[in-house]
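Q: What structure does this chain adopt?
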Amino acid sequence: MRNVVSCFSESAVNVSNSSSSCSKYSRTACTAPTQTPSVQNAVTCLYKITLSDQKQLLVAVNWYKTNTVQGLAINFGDQDHPLPPSSSSSSPSFKLNMNSRLFRKKKGSKFLESDVAKIEIFWDLANAKYDSGPEPVDGFYVLVMVDSEIVLILGNNNIAEEAIFTKRFMKTSTTKVAKVSLISRTELCSGNNALYSTRAQFCNTGIAHEILIRCSGEKEGLKHPVLSVCIDKKTVIRVKRLQWNFRGNQSIFVDGLLVDLLWDVHDWFFNPASGYAVFMFRTRRGMDSRLWLEEKSVHHKESDTVEFSLLIHACKSSH
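A:
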């Protein structure tokens, strides 16, 4: 008898170092093409914060970059002011423009006024290192405190820990540290070819996986466009005749988790003025047989289980 998890669906692909798959596509190597992947213009990570008093907050961290501006924005929300943040003045927000004169000193601190909490943000981007996108990959830290409780630390752990234990933060054995869960990551990408590359960690205990999305076309000798989605160089989805199959979904397994993968490339073919495609990866709870699209109105009892979503907006620019 085949493994129940790996064969939950005949079309489900199991991405694992030790498990076999029930899909013919997973045995197909996903060779990275020679083209340069499209670049990230913005990355937004949404975190669920549970404070020591069990109060919950949402924190959205947005790194963005255009031809003229590069910056960082952090927005805070809760049940009364959900994210994306509303225009309400009671929803605190923080923004840095890295091209402005004020940002020449790429380290500092900021206190945010709020009716419900005392929010402090500390950052050091003086030696931050970047790839092609707006999000730094090393040599930096961003630390967020709410009511003297550490709620979020981004960046290099060694640099952040060194900063935490300085007199600036006065961290002691009684300093509280909130519980943090990354619940979604949204990436906005653009380029003159349909090739998108990123990395994602689908659960707190999992590893970061390489994700490659590629649309092959007539320039590569194909009569009809083909969409391929690869994880760790394994092809998990291959959609032929994409102009007719421009929307769809499929289930895969990553690190033992059931992940629903949805694609919508309608605008690539029928609305070229905008040209945006959407790809979403979302983990599903346990062996729940419902598609994730049907779960939005369902309340789960497993409050400790946090779902994760990766949303990619892909734009094929003409230049």
